[in-house]
Amino acid sequence: MCTGPKQIEIPPSYAFADFNNDGLDDFFCIKEDAVWVSLNRGGNPPKFESIGQVIGGFDGLKATDVRIADIDGDGRVDFCLVKSAGEIACSRNGGWADKPQWQGFSTVKGIRGTVFNTAQPDKAGIVLADLNGDFRSDVMYIGDHGQVSTWVNNRGSGSGIVPKWRSAGQTHAGQAVTGIQDSIKFGRIYGSNRLDYIFLKEEKDRFDVVVWQNQGAGGTKLKADGNYYCDMRGTGSDDYVWIYQDGHGAEINVNNHSPPAWGHNTKIELKVPGPRNGIHLADWTGDGRCDVIVQNKATGHLTVYKNQYDKGADSISFDSGTSVATDCNQGWGVGIFDLGMRFHDIDGDGRADALCIEKNGRITGWLNKANGLENVGQIKDRANIRFADVEASGRADLLHVDKYTGAVDDFTNNGHKAQGGSSFSLTKRGMLYNPIESLSPEGASKVAKVVEASSEMVDSEVGSSTSSDVLETTSSMLDSVSFRRDASSFIRYKAALLGYNHRRSGANVTNTSKLAILAPRN
């Protein structure tokens, strides 16, 4: 039972939020100096299973200073303390399944580090909740007459995974009466992912619940969310493709091997079902050009739209789509990098293979053969797993990215050889790329400018003119500075700007001194 001193009133003596990323809100009992959790096991009515205390010690603060919120947008709520009227410190819930593992946001060991520090009139009005429906909790301050100021939570550009907070100003005007700070709530009344504004209006013998529907939009994406890099023309070099969130269109900037310049004359016609999380670019047919693969989230069934590039007309179009069945039901998570399926050539035959990544990191796969898919079973925190051919073998190697520093550990792909319960043989080479901390102060300053340019916020989707301008700006600023936009972009950037494909013999790499995007560790 969730009990505590009588003076602790709602909020926050209890909370409902997703503790284990299963899509169901769990029950949090916030006592003095401890938080207990009961997991929602589903059903109608739902059944709850207590797992006991999950965190303790409030550093001298009170239960009323605790906030339960998803700061990094990974689907697992984190533990936060309002240390003062404006300073919020949090520990990240980095566990998997039902077990938490408390981490920091600036570094893995930096537990309860500051993630937000903007002065507010008081502690009591500070609320952490996902106002815009992007699965990242925003900071709101509720004033005395119900007015609300909001800071939108976006992926950060500094070290670690501390968010960048963008002030949205006053988002709710409030009421004509005062003394109602505690009477303003937020909840999903109308069934969207956005939170609606609720006023518990006290009458003589009742409370009236007055609701304002959240009909807002924007603030949920960064420009870089639509970035894809793949060889669309069969040149052996990755082009830069920008795809809209709903898949209704795309823009292309072709790789002409003259960084920071990109070609803008090639036309592309693309219209596939969204959302963008289920859209992949990879060479499915083995003709050297990347096709579009759309994944069904629930079933793992694929629709492959084959690339029909016309070199004479310099235009890219796609056929009507071919269905391909897999039984990968991992779908995708709430973060843009938490993808349950990836497509890379792991056997070196030139065709992208289908990889299914479970939440515990287990990988199973289907080899894409000329006569159909071959289920090869098990191969080897999936959000930090990437694939790229860094060994020049023609086979995609497995990379693990440190989300705090960008350092990369490489597992060399030795091919389709059964080994220890896995269908593919992998050899660990250790850290292949230096972490971002190795930058000089001058280099760090350049990177900060690059990241700021490439992560500019937009409230609506944008096309190639804006996206390409950003890319050209960032490329021209790189020189020989190590670069990390986030825990995946640097790998794609490196492949795109180097301008060659390891699978193709005789590839020419020129001017490499200016393209040291990430310096290999000796």
Architecture overview:
By secondary structure, the protein is mainly β. The protein has three helices and 36 strands. It has helices spanning 441-454, 464-478, 489-498; strands at residues 14-17, 26-31, 34-40, 48-56, 66-69, 78-82, 87-93, 102-103, 113-117, 126-129, 138-142, 148-154, 164-172, 184-187, 196-202, 207-212, 221-222, 227-230, 239-243, 250-258, 261-263, 267-268, 279-282, 291-295, 302-305, 315-316, 322-324, 341-344, 353-357, 363-369, 372-378, 385-388, 397-401, 408-413, 426-433, 457-458. Strands 5, 6, 7, 8 and 9 form a five-stranded antiparallel sheet that branches. Helix 1 packs antiparallel against helix 2. It is globular, with a radius of gyration of 25 Å. It starts with 13 loop residues before the first strand and ends in a 24-residue tail after the last helix. Residues 4-11 and 454-522 have low confidence and may be disordered.
